[in-house]
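Lecture notes, part 5. Sequence design as translation. It can be helpful to think of inverse folding as translation between two languages: the language of shapes and the language of residues. The source text, in structure tokens, appears below.
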């Protein structure tokens, strides 16, 4: 008896590389995506009022871009980040009236703070203004000069007073740009190494108002004193939840989704290539008649198309009977009825059978098929 030999087949290096190709492609794709995201700047735009990524008239993108051109880095921060900025950073607080008491206290510990937008603060004197109060009154079209000792205001030269202003006589505040001697368009204080500035009207830093009179000079000099700027847009919901960024707001959600989609596409491409190229087939393809008939019958049965099946059976039976009776297969119902009359068949024998109502279930359809077959045999052998 001849012994049976066993051979161990070891995959070649080429076969191993081919098998590992899908995983290698996905890894390379993910690495390229993350490197690309890291190299590209954050160019996402939004429509947040007075936001540095808002290019519309209500945004402050123009001011942020000019600051960056002058070597000042500008970034958006959350409430938690705003409370931890360093002394080399100017913290810009937009709409400070929306800050909670806790956030307000944290912000007051920072060295350089610029408050912008007291539109919701008129008629009150909050703690962060330290003796000043927000006011709202009629706007003016007459330009006014600083009339104060502030260097920042002096560089702006002149501005046009608006509806929103500050008033009061807080300690060590420089009150600048007034049309009536009571309300002011800018306030500034430098005390114990801390800088505070108030720009009551946020329109002065928005894209639609930054070029008016000395607004740009005022904003650039007040905000660009330090090499870094942290831009915080206050919200009444800040501090309500420990998680400041919800999953749907995460900036990494869209890149992660695109990475997964690209990986799946590469995986499908890799496995598709392993299956080999498509093989062309000569057309037309010959299909046996019985196979086509069975397929059509199964389709009609699946869809419960009893009426359609009965119509096909009756039509085919009527054509064959007409041929047997010497009537054209394309003849209408009247011609076939006359032929039946000549053969002496009563209407009750064929009316319901050939032109009756459709069956309502499979059993009735089978019965109709049997009755049609019996009637056709009767006519042929008559």
């Amino acid at each position: 008896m001849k012994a049976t030999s066993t051979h161990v087949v070891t995959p070649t290096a080429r076969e191993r590389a081919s098998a590992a190709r899908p995983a290698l492609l996905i890894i390379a794709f993910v690495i390229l995506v993350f490197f690309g995201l890291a190299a590209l700047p954050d160019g996402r735009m939004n429509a947040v009022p007075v936001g540095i990524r808002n290019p519309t008239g209500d945004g402050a993108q123009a001011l942020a871009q000019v600051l960056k051109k002058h070597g000042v880095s500008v970034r958006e921060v959350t409430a938690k980040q705003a409370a931890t900025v360093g002394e080399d950073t100017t913290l810009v607080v937009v709409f400070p009236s929306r800050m909670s008491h806790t956030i307000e206290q944290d912000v007051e510990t920072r060295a350089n703070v610029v408050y912008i937008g007291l539109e919701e603060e008129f008629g009150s004197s909050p703690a962060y203004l330290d003796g000043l109060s927000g006011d709202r009154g009629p706007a003016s079209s007459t330009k006014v000069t600083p009339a104060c000792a502030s260097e920042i205001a002096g560089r702006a030269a002149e501005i046009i007073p608006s509806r929103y202003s500050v008033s009061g006589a807080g300690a060590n505040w420089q009150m600048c740009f007034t049309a009536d001697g009571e309300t002011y368009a800018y306030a500034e204080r430098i005390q114990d190494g801390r800088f505070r500035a108030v720009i009551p009207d946020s329109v002065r830093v928005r894209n639609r108002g930054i070029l008016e009179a000395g607004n740009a000079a005022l904003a650039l000099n007040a905000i660009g004193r330090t090499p870094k700027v942290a831009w915080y847009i206050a919200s009444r919901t800040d501090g309500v939840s420990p998680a400041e960024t919800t999953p749907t707001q995460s900036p990494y959600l869209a890149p992660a989704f695109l990475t997964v989609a690209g990986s799946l596409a590469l995986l499908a491409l890799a496995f598709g290539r392993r299956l080999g190229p498509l093989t062309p087939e000569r057309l037309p393809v010959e299909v046996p008649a019985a196979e086509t008939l069975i397929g059509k019958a199964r389709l009609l049965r699946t869809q419960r198309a009893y009426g359609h099946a009965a119509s096909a059976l009756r039509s085919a039976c009527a054509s064959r009977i007409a041929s047997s009776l010497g009537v054209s297969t394309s003849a209408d119902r009247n011609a076939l009825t006359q032929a039946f009359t000549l053969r002496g068949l009563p209407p009750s024998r064929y009316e319901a059978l050939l032109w009756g109502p459709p069956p309502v279930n499979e059993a009735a359809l089978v019965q109709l098929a049997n009755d049609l077959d019996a009637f056709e045999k009767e006519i042929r052998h008559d």
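The translated text above is only one of many valid answers, since several sequences can fold into similar shapes. The longest helix spans residues 13-39.
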